[in-house]
Amino acid sequence: MQFDTLQQGISFYENYARVSGFDTRLYSRKKRKSDGKISLKYCVCNKEGFRKTPRLQSNCKKKRPITRMGCNARITLKLINDQDNYIIFSFHEGHTHPLTTPNSVHHTK
């Protein structure tokens, strides 16, 4: 797929995630050195990766639940060099956790 702007690509993945039953977050980006435009943008499942410090070892008073489960679902948007459009460069659909049911989707952000 091709998008006119980066925001259109991000919105597309967010809508797909909402229908599928998971939340997303913006993970990382790469900029071109020549003009500073974002050349790659990663949108991932909000349960991607793991926290750096385990909650049980930290000295915080309120223990928050573990939200990251190592999920690999993501999309990579890439800038087309000769145009100012973005394409879906890679798409990984697999989740390592159960998805939200249609009745509970309203609880997602």
Question: Would you write up a description of this structure?
Answer:
The chain has one helix at 6-20; strands at residues 2-3, 24-31, 38-45, 74-79, 86-92. With 109 residues, it is an alpha+beta fold. Strand 2 (24-31) and strand 3 form a beta hairpin. It is globular and about 50 Å long.
Give the biggest sheet. Answer: 5 strands, antiparallel
- What's the overall average pLDDT, rounded? 77
State the helicity in percent bands.
10-25%
* DSSP strand content: 25-35%
Helix and strand run: EHEEEE
Structural class computed from helices and strand pairing:
alpha+beta
The count of helical stretches stands at 1
Distance between the termini: 25 Å
- Radius of gyration computed on alpha carbons: 16 Å
Shape: globular
| Unreliable stretches covering 5 or more consecutive residues | none
List its salient traits.
109 residues; alpha+beta; 5-stranded antiparallel β-sheet; globular
Question: How does the SSE layout of this entry go?
Answer:
Blueprint: E1 2-3, H1 6-20, E2 24-31, E3 38-45, E4 74-79, E5 86-92
Antiparallel strand pairs: 1-5, 2-3, 3-4, 4-5
Write a concise synopsis of the structure shown.
With about 110 residues, the protein is α+β, with helices and mostly antiparallel strands. The protein contains one helix and five strands.
